[in-house]
Design a protein that fits this description.
mainly alpha, 2 helices
Amino acid sequence: MAATDRAGKVATRQGLGRRAAQFLREVRSEARKIAWPNRRELTVYTAVVLVVVAATTLFVAVADLGISQLIHLVGIL
């Protein structure tokens, strides 16, 4: 089935190169609309991520140690 444009006319087939170039132009256009964080915001976001990762790691380590000790105490393994 042939592709149609907004007016309902049958669109001519473009080559792969033309379609890829059009796609990249549209990506560039959309990327310009992004509200990128400034340096301070980026630093704060990075710090938050590092703190959450550290807290999660600590929680998992303590939970693992506790479960290991409980299993050892009960004598299952």
